[in-house]
Amino acid sequence: MTPQDKLHREILAETQTIACVGVSLNPVRPSNYVARYLSLRGYRVIPVNPGHAGKTLYGARVLARLSDIDGPVDMVDIFRRSEHVLPIVAEALEHLEGLRTIWMQIGVRNEEAAALAKARGLNVVQDRCPKIEYQRLFGELRKGGFNTGIISSRLHSGEQRAANTAGLA
Fold this sequence. Notes:
The chain is of the alpha/beta class. It contains 6 helices and 7 strands, in the order αβαββββαβαβαα.
């Protein structure tokens, strides 16, 4: 396991509450199914999107801003373009006491925002998805890189070959 993998695993294991900034109510949008996945894994997900404020997503009321959050947040997961990240991080640092991680989604990088968060002692992850990292680091991905959704005790053909050569089958 690489040091980066170890850090991501620690972040995902220790995090309890995630504010998802830029989450969409559209179920085919990545921000929506990532928020759903994280909530199904036991995280408290706080959806943040001013365009959907007051609506409900997976049992949680959508908030307009990070400053509207009442209570602890461990991680802010950002689904916004890179050029919009700095004010989001600044707001998070100002209003979210106890915040431990800024996570920028795949394709999102902002070195100035990352430096600001790191200077305050936060973990920063850029250009990664917590859903994908969770699946990868906690054993939910199959060899092909995706979750098949099939629960079976039957070995797949390649696994059967490996079991046969190891004398297990």
